[in-house]
UniProtKB/TrEMBL annotation:
This is 8-amino-7-ketopelargonate synthase. InterPro entries: Aminotrans_II_pyridoxalP_BS, Aminotransferase_I/II_large, AON_synthase_class-II, AONS_Archaea/Proteobacteria, PyrdxlP-dep_Trfase, PyrdxlP-dep_Trfase_major, PyrdxlP-dep_Trfase_small. It comes from the Bacteria. SUPFAM superfamilies: PLP-dependent transferases. Gene3D superfamilies: Aspartate Aminotransferase, domain 1, Type I PLP-dependent aspartate aminotransferase-like (Major domain). Keywords: Biotin biosynthesis, Pyridoxal phosphate, Transferase. It comes from Nostoc cycadae WK-1. CDD domains: KBL_like. Its cofactor is pyridoxal 5'-phosphate. It catalyses: 6-carboxyhexanoyl-[ACP] + L-alanine + H(+) = (8S)-8-amino-7-oxononanoate + holo-[ACP] + CO2. The keyword Transferase applies. The modification N6-(pyridoxal phosphate)lysine is found at K242.
């Protein structure tokens, strides 16, 4: 019997390395943008979720700085205990206005928003139907809830209906959970069909708009707006850390839902409130999204330009179906993905290799930003064309 109860960790790391699953952080040393300094060298950044280029925007920086001077660096406690600021409420009302819901509640991260919301609305007597490609936060929120969980094949509405037909009557409540934009594929969930299914089987529907907020829809309100589902009975989750260039998460929905979460969501009740700086930056970002649609228009121009170039010049790289700024092409193995990722980095392009267990098949994930230039996009395609 081993005398070191931690000895298994070293062997586990060896196994991870042998499978080419090992990960390490990569240090950036300047402000976020279409180019970044990575390990002391400037590279074109196709690895960021900063779709609108707001994380380095001077207005967000000014708003964050002003909030720090006026309110300090931290909220100092949970919002129910001692950490609530009027600024938090202003942000929540701005989110509700953007999403056209009755109310919203802000969490300290999108991950916490999913954990707290899911675990609050269902429990041990309930059922969760979860898309198999859902984000880790959705999956872990489902586990935390204690509900029975059934994963349905990715975006397969017929399979979902079959499961509901067989299982729904056995449970008190039922919750369907899905990403709206799937972050490692780039495709969209079939939201209208899911809403129809939820109505037919008396289910709640939770949709995570993390990669859609600010990006998709006529006003940047997300896939709910894009699909014409605004005002439908939904639980909408999102982040402030992607297109909105800050930090935090939110739930938007009915006034009763939000009031319930204030009283029952442990990841809101027992967590320090979002910092004043992050709150002010996110509030300013929402104002920019609403006042400057040209940013979103430019983003989609860049997406279309890159997609067309890749289809014309790189037909051997089969892009996964995408309706978002996320473009992915699959590779045979983790080692192939690492090789292509390193080739891109050597040529001055940062586009990461994504490998199991994050995804079932290895791939290169490309994130397009509104601030990418035509020349930067063309360089990416040229480098990929010269990949062995």
């Amino acid at each position: 019997m081993t005398t070191d109860p931690y000895a298994w960790i070293e062997q586990s790391l060896v196994t991870i390395q042998r499978a080419d699953w090992y990960r390490s952080v990569q240090t950036l040393s300047d402000r976020p943008g279409a180019t970044v300094v990575l390990a002391g060298r400037e590279v074109i950044n196709f690895a960021s979720n900063d779709y609108l280029g707001l994380a380095g925007d001077e207005r967000l920086i000014a708003a964050a700085t002003k909030a720090i001077h006026e309110l300090g660096t931290g909220s100092t406690g949970s919002r129910l205990l001692s950490g609530h600021r009027e600024l938090h409420r202003e942000l929540e009302m701005a989110i509700a206005s953007l999403k056209q819901t009755e109310d919203a509640i802000v969490f300290s991260s999108g991950y916490l928003a999913n954990l707290g919301a899911i675990a609050s609305v269902v429990g041990k007597r309930d059922l969760i139907l979860s898309d198999q490609y859902n984000h880790s936060s959705l999956k872990n929120g489902a586990v935390l809830s204690g509900a029975a969980i059934i994963e349905y094949p990715h975006c397969e509405v017929v399979a979902l209906k079959t499961q509901l037909s067989q299982q729904r009557q056995n449970y008190r409540r039922c919750l369907i959970i899905t990403d709206s934009v799937f972050s490692m594929d780039g495709d969209l969930c079939p939201l209208p069909a899911l809403l129809k299914m939820s109505a037919e089987f008396n289910c709640m529907l939770l949709v995570d708009e993390a990669h859609a907020t600010g990006v998709i829809g006529k006003t940047g309100a997300g896939c709910v707006e894009h699909f014409g589902c605004t005002g439908k009975p939904l639980i909408q989750i999102g982040t402030l850390s992607k297109a909105l260039g800050s930090l935090g998460g939110y739930v938007a929905g009915s006034a009763n839902l939000i009031d319930f979460l204030r009283n029952r969501a442990p990841t809101w009740i027992y967590t320090t409130g979002l910092s004043p700086a992050d709150t002010a930056a996110a509030l300013t970002a929402i104002q920019v999204v609403q006042q400057e649609p040209q940013r979103r228009i430019q983003l989609w121009r860049n997406v279309d330009y890159l997609k067309n170039l890749m289809q014309q010049q790189l037909p051997h790289l089969k892009l996964l179906p995408t309706e978002s700024p996320i473009l992915c092409f699959q590779l045979p193995s983790p080692s192939d993905a690492l090789r292509v990722g390193q080739h891109l980095k050597d040529a001055g392009i940062f586009a990461p290799a994504i490998r199991p267990p994050t995804v079932p098949t290895s791939r290169i994930r490309i994130s397009v930003m509104a601030t990418h230039t035509t020349e930067q996009i063309e360089k990416l395609v040229a480098v990929l064309r010269n990949t062995d």
